[in-house]
Write a structure and sequence with these properties.
Layout lengths: L7 E2 L4 H17 L3 E10 L8 E12 L2 E12 L4 H14 L6 E6 L2 H7 L11 H6 L1 H12 L2 E6 L4 E2 L1 H17 L3 H12 L10
Parallel strand pairs: 2-5, 5-6
Antiparallel strand pairs: 1-7, 2-3, 3-4
Helix pairs in contact: 2-5
Length: about 200
């Protein structure tokens, strides 16, 4: 069986390799029209300053027996966690697909994979605070997945795919593009350190 795309195997865990082989077999049988490789990045800030985040997703479309055409979507947020950016990569990629499309999504984030596959064994409990703060994103993801035929796969450690590496580089560049300048980061960091920032009012 020829894989639908090229990848490199570098010392993966046995369970990860088995899951990867199962995913490749499923894709060969189901023949999805689109493959999505998403990734997110978050840059650290000084003195507890909120992190700037970036996301990117590489979208491949099936042509004949392989996947050749390529589209890259990306974006950034001045304040974001890496989980939110990983989630945004998948969400934006799915929303860009036509309704009813058949797609396979790859992510290397176990938390996001578990969030999108709640019925699978080994489900990770997502932090309640993250879910509260991102209710709007969760609602959009629910709609996006309901309107398309989507399977989400975990990209295990030790498996290197050039499309995912490209998404990682673009996500990092997107985060750097929205990151405040040095002097502004210094000022924001000093304000937080000295307790000059306003505390949110209790509900």
């Amino acid at each position: 069986m020829n894989p639908p795309f090229r990848f490199q195997i570098t010392r993966p865990r046995p369970e990860g390799l088995r899951a990867w082989e199962k995913a490749m077999k499923a894709i060969a049988q189901e023949r999805p029209t689109y493959l999505l490789f998403g990734d997110g990045s978050s840059l650290p800030g000084p003195w507890g300053q909120p992190r700037a985040g970036g996301w990117a997703v590489v979208v491949l479309r099936r042509q004949g027996e392989g996947y050749h055409s390529q589209q890259v979507l990306e974006g950034g947020e001045p304040r974001a966690t890496v989980e939110t950016m990983e989630f945004m990569a998948v969400l934006k990629g799915l929303e860009a697909l036509p309704l009813g499309a058949k797609a396979a999504v790859f992510t290397d984030n176990e938390t996001i994979h578990a969030l999108l596959n709640p019925g699978q064994k080994g489900h990770i409990r997502i932090r309640a605070r993250w879910q509260r703060e991102n209710r709007h994103l969760l609602a959009r993801m629910k709609v996006a997945m309901a309107r398309r035929k989507v399977r989400v796969y975990l990209l295990p450690r030790g498996i290197r795919v050039k499309h995912h590496r490209k998404a990682h580089r673009r996500a990092l560049a997107a985060a750097q593009a929205v990151r405040p300048g040095f002097l502004l980061r210094l000022w924001l960091g000093l304000r937080r350190l000295l307790g000059l920032t306003r505390k949110p009012k209790a509900p």
